[in-house]
Write a structure and sequence with these properties.
This protein is mainly α. Helix content is 81%, strand content 0%. The termini are far apart. 29% of the residues are buried.
């Protein structure tokens, strides 16, 4: 009986941990994606100063960065399935994402080239994330903080689009720095997190 209670307690603690890990990992990855996406024009020119033909690569950086963010989230969602030792359906999720990637490559690369490849890659990673989210909730239900995940993702995507379109280095840097602050009025931070932020800086909320 004690063993069962201990196991249930360990499971509950693990689920709570996975929930916060997903939120915090996506927060960090989205912040990095904002920086890469908005600063891409200058980063590419620094890395390839004399290769003008490569400068267009900045158009795909943001898309690939957010695609990688989705993949990072996928790895967290897969942990619960591994803990439950019910990985038999993982190949279906991976297979569907791979098939989507191949299909989109055929459809998008001929007319759009590099951007088509970037979009198909990001779409495949997003499919991995969504498919694993569905599968993990079926096998090992965790109360992931989806509202917070959607909030931090939406704000990051909007900031990246604005920064890239404006094409101003000072504005892009400002948007990168503003990302965590803009989440405050949207109710992203939990009371305990807001309390910690107040101890670090004079933030009023």
């Amino acid at each position: 009986m004690r063993t069962l209670r201990r196991r249930d307690s360990d499971d509950n603690a693990a689920k709570r941990t996975y929930s916060f890990v997903l939120t915090y990992l996506l927060f960090i990855c989205c912040w990095i994606s904002v920086a890469l996406g908005t600063l891409a024009p200058w980063i590419v020119k620094i890395l390839a100063p004399n290769q003008h033909a490569f400068w267009r690569a900045d158009e795909a950086v943001g898309i690939l960065a957010f695609g990688s963010t989705a993949y990072a989230g996928y790895t967290v969602l897969a942990i619960g399935i591994g803990r439950a030792r019910q990985t038999q359906f993982n190949w279906i999720v991976s297979g569907v994402a791979a098939a989507l990637n191949i299909a989109l490559n055929f459809v998008l690369i001929p007319p759009y080239g590099m951007m088509g490849a970037a979009i198909s890659t990001a779409a495949a990673y997003l499919a991995l994330f969504l498919g694993m989210a569905f599968n993990s909730q079926r096998v090992y239900p965790v109360a992931y903080q989806w509202r917070r995940v959607i909030t931090l993702s939406a704000v990051a995507i909007v900031l990246t689009a604005i920064g890239y379109e404006l094409g101003s280095l000072p504005i892009s840097i400002a948007l990168c720095l503003a990302y965590p602050l803009l989440l405050l009025p949207l109710g992203f931070y939990l009371p305990a997190e807001r309390a910690r932020l107040r101890r670090l800086a004079p933030i009023r909320g």
